[in-house]
Structure prediction request, 491 residues.
Amino acid sequence: MVSNKESYLKKHTTTIIIVVLYLFYVYPILFPFSPPIVIGEKAQSFYDLVESLPDEPTVLLTYDYGAVSYPYFQGFQEAFMKHIYRKDGNVILVAFGAAGPMMYKMMQKTFAPVWDQKTYGEDYVFLGFIPGGETGVASFMADIRQTIMIDFEGNPIDTLQIMENVNMATDFDLVVNCETSTTIGDGFVRQVASAYGVKLALVGPGGPTWEPYYPEQIQGNLYPLPGAPAEYEKLLGAPGNASSQIGLLFTGSLFYLVIIICGNVIPRIGKGSENGNTD
Amino acid sequence: MSQVVRKTIPLVLTTFIGISLILTYFFDFGAAGVSYEKLLLNFAVTIGAASLGLGIVNLSRLHVIRLQRKAPGQWYYSLILLASMILMICVGLIYNIKSDAFSLMYDATVAPLGATMMSLFIVWIAPALYRSARIRNLGSALLIACLFIVVIGGSPLGPALLPFTTTISNWLNSIVNLASMRALKITTAIGLIVLSIRILTGKEKSYLRLGD
Prediction:
């Protein structure tokens, strides 16, 4: 016979799991802590890739994600821009996802400390949203001016200092694409790395699916979730958003481990005591 | 006439454009070839932009029909969707998408709703994981062992608690995952080539929707 306590636990399993989940996620918010950050191979190779760029590099940062995924990329993008500005470089932003313009508005708010010391049109520019998916990427890389004539702010791109010698893919020292899906990443490999031989890095949770391209076609493959952006920040010596989330990532991962262990142990204990009673 | 418009012309256009683009990729036709390629790419971008408008029309049609029929359990969602869409379009058109008003609308609705959906996903997946990630046989034991190692090794837990899991996790990712992903990508590419050949030779016509 199953005791009342056991049947209560069985009945309220979901509620208990959700309460425990909240505890695991709330704890690092109330009591922030930072577990040790060990530099992984992916973060190190991405850092080395940016370091290997010539002085004053022109970098294209493209993105295809919405508000939900913004926290994935916020820390990485901020650290990346700091890294490029350390080398006196320029960052050209363009979106291949429809939510791109809104993500740029979010960036304006969160990247204010970085961009406040920089001039729009000279150190960075947002060229807006280009539809068409991979075809849009192909068109943009083949001829920027034929694909778009004005930037997001409505300035003709010929009037922007940053765009002076930038006409096509080969004018970029590095192309970095951030995305949550995995479809356009393959498109970047075809339209940027294979077609023009330009250095390419892909950043996103789809990282494992891009492994076959690394390190030949893509020189950087950074997964934001396992804490690679925090490792990148550590390499830069500039802890930021990604480093502050590492405690949450630690307890979040720990929670799933606890759930897997409990899922395998608790039912067996229950069964054991049930058998013991009936026997 | 209808057969010519619905079948013959699209087939001829598809074959001509497809083959000419392949030729411009493999052979040098000088400035004319480059211009032709860029022109077609621009067409595709313009069509992509137009498809967003088409999406709005299709979505509106679907939900207006649901509203007209007062579909049980659905019509009020359709009403909310249409009202939200019209409001966002109006604010975007009147104030411009660069305006603070449009940003506020997005930040106050789409962003928190998206975050809510993701959070709910986590809440939903935790009890599901508790019930499904169980060792029942050798296969499930191997799967859970891999899950365990990847979760520990791929997160900050690995270096802090069990450093060896990071090495195993990296090996799983760069050898086992790499091999399977490579096989998947190569077979997908071969499939795409076969499909492209079928489309270019007019054998694959399902995209014309002739049966509709």
Summary: Strands of chain A lie at 58-64, 90-95, 124-129, 174-179, 200-203, 220-222.
